[in-house]
Amino acid sequence: MRLSSETLSRLPESVARPGYDRSAQAAGIVHFGIGAFHRAHQAWYTDRAMARGDRDWGIIGVSLRSANVARQLNPQDGLYTLTECSAERNRMRVIGSVQRVIVASEEPEAVIAQIAAPETRIVTFTVTEKGYCRAADGSLDPFLAHHGSIYAFLEHGLRRRREQGLPGLTLLSCDNLALNGRQLERLMGEYLALKDAELGAWVAAECTFPCAMIDRIVPATTAADRKMVATLARLDDDGAVMTEPFSQWVIEDKFAGPRPQWENVGAELVGDVAPYEAAKLRMLNGAHSALAYLGLEHGHAFVHQAVGDPAIRPLIERLMHEEAQPTIKAAPGQDLQAYADALLARFANPALQHRLIQIAMDGSQKIPQRWLETLAANQEKGLQCPAILTALAAWLRHVRGDNAAKWGPVDDPMAARLADIWRDEGVDGTPRALFGAQGLFAKTWQASEADFAALAQRLARATA
Ligand code: CS2
Q: Does the keyword Oxidoreductase apply (predicted)?
């Protein structure tokens, strides 16, 4: 029997459930990219905010293309379990904030109508780095943006709001991009400049784009996880998500209208997100990507194995403490030393089963804000980053296909282009084609001759 509004009462007492009348809630939020991360993060905060008395913040989820999540959640009335996993115990809760999932490619009009609905106040996004349709230099790639992107749906939905005299919206990016709100604002502006400049002016005046730092480790759910959940919940749950006990959400307090009282359930509303975001991207995500490429080369499958490997761990510590941390100007009360230590403990959580190959995906979209910004900031001070350069060499080998036999083909929107560069330029030319003055990533970081020498040395070394 499957989890749903009807079967909810069959759950054992130990499983917490929504403490509010779900059917009485209007949907104040439209969320693009309703994958496991959103369900374990924002939907969880919103569920608890409503349990504390907040009202009408139901979430309508949108999947741009895949019907998987709709198939998982719609037959369950949007309900799913969230399990917090640690070595000590697993704690399960049913989340009630998601009402329905729309597959945009199947029902585009329903998405537009939902954005234009009077009760909608906030649109949020976890569409991953590549969902923003940026070219290598960070500007909007019009070709990508014109084909079923978030921008097209926002354009139509916001135009309708304007025509109907409805207020603007808060457009809140929850993806791992540097200054994600500023980027979304700029990219949306670039898109509307091509499509409808008048609407662009209305959006600039009526909508806001707060920046946010979002953090919770959420491995992809496996069949074994679903089996475990079924045993504990005594119901099948196709939408189950597994995560760690830790969670953090720091949001720039810049809303166009009402918002949930997320601060009552642990979120931090601040004036400036930048120091939190830089710490998270450069330390957590930077270390994660390094663990991924180095760990796969060393034959590991999971994060906790890679961080426990004495051949890898010192390099991760160096990357965080000596290379990333000094580039961040901490906010008052922000302790970066303690932050790095806490990250090492989170990575070591053996109950999470966080796959390195999941993190290795889409490296071309991730390394600029995770590594290249750190390299650039150190370069300004005349410093080199040996740990990041070692990780960068491992990434170069990864996109050459060195890990493919064991871990599968390279999963990256730029995979074909990177493979072409490797084939045409070889080991001598590839680092320059990517990180030279004319390189693909030149906008974020340009390697010095010493960096190229260090990369060449690392690439020459036998793998692992
Ligand atoms: C990871 C992130 O897959 C990845 O690239 O680094 O998803 C990471 O787990 C989250 O950002 C943690 O908040």
A: yes
Distances (CA, A) of 457 to 308, 389, 453: 26, 10, 6
The C-alpha atoms of residue 136 and residue 140 are separated, in whole angstroms, by: 9
Are the CB atoms for 396 and 428 separated by under 8 Å? Answer: no
Point out the least confidently predicted range of 139-148, 268-277, 389-398.
139-148
Distance 359 CA to ligand 1 centre (A): 7
Alpha helices in 256-311 (DSSP H): 274-279, 286-297, 303-307
**Average pLDDT, rounded, for the chain:** 97
Q: Which pLDDT tens digit goes with each residue over 24-35?
A: 999 999 999 999
User: For ligand 1, what atom is nearest to the CA of residue 37?
Assistant: 7
- CA 243 – CA 214 distance, rounded (Å): 14
pLDDT at res. 461: 76
| Per-residue 3-state assignment (H helix, E strand, C coil) for 299-330 | CCCEHHHHHCCCCCHHHHHHHHHHHHHHHCCC
The amino acid sitting at 123 is V
Token pair 């959006």 in the structure block, residue: 203
**Domains and their CATH numbers in the chain:** 8-270 (3.40.50.720), 274-463 (1.10.1040.10)
Runs of H (alpha helix) within 54-120: 68-73, 108-116
Distance 285 CA to ligand 1 centre (A): 6
Q: Could you report the predicted ipTM of this complex, rounded to two decimals?
A: 0.99
